[in-house]
Amino acid sequence: MPQPPALTDLAAALRRPVTSGRDLKAIEILCEAFLDRPRAERARAARELPRLAQGADTVLMLSAMATVSGDLRYYDELLDAIEGNIAQSGLEGLLHIHAGIGRQLFLMRMDPASRPGFFEERQFPFYRRILGEIRRRQAVVPPARRAGGAGTGRVVLVTNQFLSLRHQPSRDLLSYAALLEDRCGREVVILNTNIMPAEVHSLFVPSFAASVEPTLSGDQRIEADGRAYRMLSSVEPCVSPGKIAWFLEAIAALDPDAVLSLGGSCVVADLMAGTRPTLCIPTTSGATLSLADIVLDFGGGAAPTHGPLAQSWRPFRFLHSLAGAAPRTDAARAAFGLEENAFVCAVVGNRLDDEADGAFLAMLEALFDRVPRAVTVFAGHAEALPRRLAASRHAGRLCCLGYVSDMGALLAVCDAYVNPRRTGGGASAAEALAAGAVPLSLPGGDVASVVGPRFTLPDYGAFVERLAALAADPAARAAAAAEARVQGSRRSGPEETAAALSRHLDEATTLFHGRRPLEE
Fold it and tell me: What is the value of pTM for the model shown?
């Protein structure tokens, strides 16, 4: 039976030697051509690949099959193959595959129903094994703290990645540092570990490479909002020899009362589990990989009834750093090239190439058919998206703004904030609520957690109906905007967050004391 050209092209690419990042990127593009196709067609294509691409590398083949199909069972097979030979695998390659799987889950590219329990039964244990290999190969001995020792009033705040104030998680990190110092009475030292792979170390597709800010190296001061923070940062590659030891030696010298991690899969923080009180603050609503004594919720999640977080999970609501938190009264549509009578929808994100997919753009086109004065602006980095928008039959009503420095001003002149299917976006959703831009989100993900059920709709068809109704009725839009501002005011404030953090830090200390006997 003749195969679709995309499948034969992909099989041919899998059979050829991969000698450069360009070869791997070409395979990724061929895999992603299947994402908008019917699920049954995607499943058939994945099943055909082993026959058509015999001899392909195991990691390359199975990760491609998973991408084409969205079926998590191919990751089961991939992890079976890796874990059988894990002692001989490079640490960088193991972390690269771990990060690649995590990114696919974060982007909602995989079907959770295809393999129930994947997080608890495979992803989390694989991460534990990687930590075990790091300990074994690098003779890691975390500096334990005497359970009965006097407190120092100091905590270390550990992150996998600090970039700049244009990077939302970096702004959030500094906000938490300020909150811990000003409202919780703690001295904070930030550890910027950059443990995530910044280069390609395996043939896993789609590949993943983290960004690193090369100027952030060594012991330095980071200035923001009129104050300075001490940061210990390493830009050495991934888990190069000596890098983890340097951070652990720094922790021993600082002698913190607790180790806090911002985000999951924080290797340096998780290596400290059991040796000092540990606490993890997630940055997303997705399942958090953390060995901390206490793992906080992102906001609005249900307590896990089983699995590795069943004992450590605690309710919490993440406090975003909002650059445009104060309502804007001076914002003007003309500054963004928007007409006064337009019905303006905003789409905000730093992964728009991945998240503004075919189904989302089809929804916007259906809206434009219904509402002639509707336009959509995309704010955030995108390389491929402008070309895709140019091919739309409504290309003139779809505009990519790129990076927007004043997000508060943009959202203040928008009628709606429209969220594609994704996990992230919590900070921009909070900004939209504060600005009175009516948010629309599918269920699940950070945005749905922030905006609440009133602004969560079941599918894109409901988006079109809701937006068309708002465009046709200014009074209804004004009422929805007022409701959005009220929802925004309900987000956890600094006082509430500080009280919760202090309480959980005390609990982590109590748990630590309870399981470690006092040393003589």
Answer: 0.93
